[in-house]
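Researcher: Next sequence.
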Amino acid sequence: MRTVPAAEMGGCRVLGQVWGGWRRGPGVRTASRAAGSGTEARHQLRHRGSSKRSGPLGDQPFPGLLQLEHLSREGLVDALRAAVVDQKGPLVTLNKPPGLPVTGKPGELTLFSVLPELSQSLGLRDRELQVVQASGKETSGLVLLSSCPQTASHLQKFFIYSRRARRPTATYWAITDGIPATSEGNIQAALKLEHIDGVDLVIPVKSPSRKDFQEGVKRTLSHFHVVAMGSGCALVQLQPLTVFPSQLQVHMVLQLCPVLGDHTYSARVGTVLGQRFLLPAESTKPQRQVPDEALLRRLRLTPSQAAQLPLHLHLHCLHLPGMRPREAPMKLLAPLPPYFSRSLQCLGLHQQ
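Model: Next structure:
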């Protein structure tokens, strides 16, 4: 399986935004962005790297994070409107910051809970948006919304068919603590979801039986490609070919290379005399990821700041079919969050 670099557009239309201007190129249609955003949203989403410095780290080592606990419903709508990277016909594409859940309990502030207000804010009137595809709560990146039920159904069937055909439609970027043993390959694992000590956790299952699969165990598959490596870390392209909660995080743990900022599953990787090994998943409780001192220095973080590291997993690209007969496929792109770009710079990892 071959990973398609972002530069290879082929017959695809590319929609997306980069910091400081629209992505343009031969044959690339410029995306039209919804104008305007609230003051609260601009404050939440602005690149804080240009703010006044207080010491070598500045005021904020993780620029661009959304402080959800300080947002009102109106503020979240403004922030999401500011995060729109494309609005074309019934489709709206957002670049979601990490920490924002798509769904949740009644009364919780989630993407789903403010879709009616977001629809109004984007001028869709009575055409309420629905979620077609989205990155997880702690994952940043693309969220695809549609104001047309028929279009949403068409795209959801496309994603289901693509999974059955083992055809990747989503590409993630990840920074890993550790470097995979091979530069490219597939990761296969049988996974199950268990409720342990009040938390839902994903557990690998070795040699699953037919009964295991009847009780919720699922075979999962991801393709990975190492884009860059250095400083004991790697920039990795990940393409899930199945869908399971936290699949990519658990798959990288099985490679002994947890995603940077994975405070749930990274504790399953132990180290003795510089050699990494897997700890039993069932008996290893989630805990804050603890980078070694050398990595902390390269990231220019204190231990207390490292405890707040956001998950460095970003849904960067989605491939969609043409919406009409003979229409070229689309390629949706979401730029990296500022904190992700900062980590790449600190680690000397460069995208190709």
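Model: Confidence is low (pLDDT under 50) at residues 1-59. The longest helix spans residues 149-164.
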